[in-house]
Specification:
alpha/beta; nine-stranded mixed beta sheet; 4 helices; about 30% strand; globular
């Protein structure tokens, strides 16, 4: 997303009962950034904190960043420092990416889960997501586990060979497809087309899964 050592990042992922907040903060610290844990909700206070602390960017869901930017405009408070964003936990369509760009915010998405951590990330090429070097990704036919040909939509299945928490062929329930060829950015690892829906009937509400049985 373009963050650099010494910058301040406004983190609007939750730290409560979900790992997203601490996962993103750990990554930011590894870059040498300072993190302000803004959390969720309290939109007016989020706007005021960004105006006062002047972070270089935002980490959180794209829908909440849109709410913050719209609330800032409504309050008449400019947020000139906010020029980049790392977005996850929700779909990030090109229309919303362009909406942010028109307001001076360059948004990039990353794809991960609570169990696996980071799976793939967007580059400056804006062509799919490059798979992280620490995971093995397969695209399989839902319900069978059989790999599908490159380019065909299937379920994202991930293997993570970590000594403390190994996962072999973990089914994410997300749909995607392999994107052929190398990334124009120079990254050489496998690419996927991004999030293309769910293989089950779950839905995302404020970045959290809701299952039919819960309803």
């Amino acid at each position: 997303a373009g963050f650099r050592p010494g910058e301040l990042i406004h983190n609007s992922f939750s730290y409560h009962f979900v790992p997203a907040g601490s996962m993103m903060e750990t990554g930011a610290h590894a870059l040498g950034c300072t993190v302000f844990p803004g959390g969720t909700g309290q939109t007016e206070q989020q706007v005021q904190a960004i105006a006062d602390l002047k972070p270089a960017g935002y980490i959180g869901t794209p829908s909440f960043l849109k709410i913050i930017v719209e609330k800032a405009a409504e309050m008449g408070i400019p947020l000139p420092s906010l020029t980049k964003a790392l977005l996850s936990a929700e779909a990030f369509p090109p229309s919303l990416r362009d909406w942010f760009a028109e307001r001076g915010v360059a948004g990039y998405q990353c794809y991960g889960t609570a169990d696996l951590g980071l799976i793939a990330y967007e580059t400056s090429a804006r062509q799919g997501l490059v798979v992280d070097e620490g995971v093995l990704v397969e695209i399989v036919r839902p319900g069978t586990g059989d790999p599908v040909p490159d380019g065909e939509v299937g379920e994202v299945v991930v293997t993570v060979l970590q000594a403390d928490y190994p996962l072999v062929r973990f089914g994410t329930g997300d749909l995607s497809a392999v994107l052929a060829g190398p990334c124009p950015s120079g990254r050489t690892n496998m690419r996927i087309k991004g999030w293309l829906g769910r293989a089950d009937q779950t839905a995302k509400v404020r970045g959290m899964f809701v299952h039919p049985s819960q309803v």
